[in-house]
Design a protein that fits this description.
Elements: H1 8-14, H2 16-29, H3 36-49, E1 53-57, H4 60-70, E2 78-82, H5 88-95, E3 99-103, H6 114-120, E4 125-131, H7 140-150, E5 153-157, E6 165-166, E7 169-170, E8 177-181, E9 195-199, H8 202-212, H9 235-245, H10 248-266, E10 272-273, E11 280-281, E12 287-290, H11 294-303, H12 331-339, E13 340-343, H13 351-366
Parallel strand pairs: 2-3, 2-4, 4-5, 5-8
Antiparallel strand pairs: 1-9, 6-7, 6-11, 8-9, 10-12, 12-13
Helix pairs in contact: 2-9, 3-9, 4-5, 4-8, 10-13, 11-13
């Protein structure tokens, strides 16, 4: 049995009729940039996230950069980010000229919480980027309280958390801005790169919109109020996202059922399942285990035609792009990078496939010779 890490073909086959109509409509109109499809998706996604405004952009990384620029973050400022995340989180801070300050993560959830942020605060801290890693929302109550007391902005990186909630509230509804990626493999994915910034701040939304389109207000193509760039969401991606959004909740529910089955079958094995905090409703973007025998588990899965991935093998503060003489020691992030492994998880995964995957994991952990193969 060959099992992919994610099965996009099954998902798109389910929606083939609706997606064909989208392509036909856009091809006929030749309206590829902006227009009704973008406006409609922005309104739909804002409503889904429980906020007033959404600005569609070309990627999740652009969303983070534009949100920071919109908040006035730049040279002389420090922005706290978790070391254990995709590098785009830190890249956005560097792109606006601010100083990246890496913080460690919690050993149970692998999320940066209020305590980790508190340890990284300084007089120059202007903002914190909270990452809802693997679809698990961070404790936004504690983080918001800390940020308010410290007078710093909160930006959420929800690139893996479409539909996740903290104590019943959608991610993105309790911060200055929340940034999403719609990369094709996300819970809500486009047909290419795409992203969005959502917020309840009308001035911030308008500034992000200007920055995303060469500083041009919507009523004019010849006036430029700010120095911006080309970071627009195109009509095809917006239309595809509108089609898929109608199915997001059912897909997330299927992911949740699969994650529950994994947890039941893996519970007796000598490994750690990355935990979810009380009050968190995950989008189950990834099913992540931690094991000292991560490499042999991955090898055994591959030999059986089962895909798996490591998110992330090198924490950001140890990447060549960011490493420096004063690179901090962040033990939880560094340990997790050596132990984490994501198993296949997608809406159309079957019970039999999960049983097969867990069977291979079990065999890898109980094989007397496994120690010989660990790198």
């Amino acid at each position: 049995m060959r099992i992919p890490f994610i099965d996009l073909a099954a998902l798109h086959t389910e929606l083939s009729g609706e997606l064909d109509q989208v392509w036909t409509s856009i091809r006929a109109s030749s309206n590829f940039i902006g227009g009704a499809h973008v406006d409609n998706f922005e309104a739909e996604w804002a409503a889904y996230c429980g906020v007033d405004y959404c600005v569609g952009v070309d990627s999740g990384t652009s969303a983070l950069e534009l949100a920071l620029r919109g908040l006035g973050i730049g040279p002389g400022d420090e922005v706290i980010v978790p070391a254990f995340t995709f590098i785009g989180t830190a890249e956005a801070v560097a792109a606006v000229g601010a100083q990246v300050v890496f913080a460690d993560v919690n050993a149970t959830t692998l999320l940066m919480g209020a305590e980790e942020i508190r340890q990284a605060l300084s007089a120059r801290t202007a903002a914190v980027i909270v990452v809802h890693l693997y679809g698990q929302p961070a404790d936004m109550d504690a983080i918001s309280s800390l940020a308010q007391a410290a007078a710093i902005a909160v930006v959420e990186d929800a690139a893996q958390a479409h539909g996740a909630k903290w104590r019943g509230r959608p991610v993105g509804s309790g911060s200055n801005a929340c940034c999403f990626s719609f990369y094709p493999t996300k819970n809500l994915g486009a047909f290419g790169d795409a992203g969005a910034v959502v917020t309840n701040d009308s001035a911030l939304a308008e500034r992000v919109r200007l920055l995303s389109n060469h500083g041009r207000p919507r009523q004019s193509s010849d006036l430029h109020e700010l120095i911006g760039g080309t970071h627009r969401l195109d009509a095809l991606q917006a239309a595809v996202l509108s089609v898929k959004l109608k199915h997001l909740d059912s897909w997330n529910a299927a992911r949740a059922r699969a994650a529950h089955q994994y947890r039941e079958l893996l519970s007796s094995l000598p490994l750690h399942l990355v935990g979810t905090a009380e009050g968190a409703c995950s989008s189950h973007h990834c099913l992540v285990i931690e094991s000292a025998h991560r490499d042999i588990i991955m090898q055994n899965l591959a030999m059986q035609g089962i895909a798996s991935k490591i998110y992330y093998p090198v924490p950001c503060h140890r990447q060549n792009a960011f490493i420096a003489q004063n690179t901090p020691c962040l033990p939880v992030s560094e340990s997790a990078a050596k132990r984490v492994l994501s198993l296949p998880l997608f809406p159309h995964i079957t019970k039999k496939e999960i049983e097969t995957i867990v069977g291979v994991v079990h065999a890898a952990l109980t094989c007397p010779s496994r120690q010989l193969n660990v790198g």
